[in-house]
Design a protein that fits this description.
- There is one protein chain.
- The chain is an all-alpha fold.
- It contains 16 helices and no strands.
- The protein has three domains: 148 residues, Alpha Horseshoe (Serine Threonine Protein Phosphatase 5, Tetratricopeptide repeat), CATH 1.25.40; 90 residues, no CATH class; 49 residues, no CATH class.
- Helix 2 runs antiparallel to helix 3, helix 3 packs antiparallel against helix 4 and helix 7 runs antiparallel to helix 8.
- The radius of gyration is 32 Å and the shape is elongated.
Length: 349
């Protein structure tokens, strides 16, 4: 089931982040020193280093910007602007969609400059699913989990260069990303209930995230609790039917629909009322308060209970019904003969 959703989870905040951070301000070549009380100020090694940085700052092509950054590293391995260069490398890797390189650059920033650096934490979290999808390892899960928790723990203060208004606008996307990543990691470990809790938090932030609805359904279904199967079927149906912003692609929706229809029939015993389930899921991101699906087992038990009640109220009709069923059965002839012989041998027969 999990393999159904092969499309990458798209984190739209990456573009906004790169736009907000931009190129960091640094001292111009030959700029006068600040007062001594301000401490030693960073200096360019020479005019060539400053010119190289200036070329980087004006380059809007991320591929050629990366080439210039690598040239800067090679020509000036020791520089007063090493911290700024690490951030520029990190944001460039993110912009180029290079999760492995972005993660390694982010780890350097966290270890060398600031263990709470927002850009670095964001880069690791947003790279976790792409990295783990191609090669899951305990290290990838561990660093993703730690970064996601650190990101959530530092949501109150905007990062440098971001206004309060910008931060408040972007926080929900970041929280959605962090909870989704934590849930996805737990799901890979088959820790179904912790994963379920994280995905529920994601859907509280963005109820129309159909991929997370499918992830949530997968976790609930995998718990194999009959009482929770209707909820799982609802979220599978939600992923299969929702078509707005945040929907799965048409092929994924079709596959989700095929799965939920089969799972519904297995649980309910037939396709009866399946259209009511899909209608409810399409209309609402969460199961309605009165949402319920009877299992085939519960339906059978109810039928038996009703049959027993009817037999108690109608004993004569129940007797003849049982005789008729026995006669019409595969062993009906033997039943008839044995009944006839019993009657011949009975007293007064």
């Amino acid at each position: 089931m999990r393999g159904l959703l092969t499309q990458p989870y798209k984190f739209l905040f990456a573009i906004a982040m790169i736009a907000m951070i931009g190129v960091l301000p640094v001292r111009m070549f030959g700029q006068a020193q600040a007062p001594a009380t301000g401490g030693a100020q960073p200096q360019w090694k020479d005019r060539a280093e400053y010119d190289l940085y200036n070329a980087i700052s004006m380059d809007t092509n991320m591929k050629t910007r990366l080439e210039k950054l690598q040239q800067w590293e090679k020509q000036y391995p020791m520089t007063d602007y090493a911290a700024q260069r690490r951030i520029l490398l990190l944001t460039t890797y993110v912009a180029l969609g290079m999760p492995k390189e972005a993660t390694e650059a982010a780890k350097k920033v966290l270890a060398t400059d600031d263990p709470k650096n927002f850009i670095a934490l964001y880069a690791i979290v947003s790279s976790t699913i792409p990295l783990a999808s191609s090669g899951p390892t305990p290290e990838v899960f561990d660093q993703g989990e730690k970064a996601a928790n650190a990101l959530l723990a530092n949501m109150d203060t905007p990062p440098a260069g971001v206004t309060e208004a910008q931060w408040n606008q972007q926080k929900p996307q970041l929280q959605e990303l962090a909870h989704t990543t934590l849930g996805w990691i737990a799901m890979q470990k088959k820790s179904w209930q912790p994963a379920e809790a994280e995905f529920q938090k994601t859907l509280q932030i963005n109820p129309n995230n159909a991929q997370v609805a499918y992830f949530l359904a997968t976790c609930i279904y995998s718990e194999k609790d009959p009482a929770k199967i209707p909820t799982a079927l609802f979220y599978f149906a939600r992923a299969a039917t929702y078509e707005g912003q945040g929907a799965l692609n048409p092929n994924a929706r079709q596959q989700a629909m095929a799965f939920v229809q089969k799972a519904y029939k297995s649980f309910h015993g037939s396709d009866a009322d399946f259209n009511k389930v899909t209608a409810a899921a399409k209309a609402s991101p969460m199961p309605p308060a009165d949402f319920a699906i009877k299992s085939a087992v519960d339906i059978a038990k109810a039928d038996i209970a009703n049959e027993e009640e009817w037999a108690k109220a109608h004993p004569q009709e129940a007797l003849w019904k049982n005789i008729k069923m026995a006669l019409m059965g595969a062993d009906g002839a033997n039943y008839f003969n044995s009944s006839d012989q019993t009657q011949e041998r009975s007293p007064g027969g």
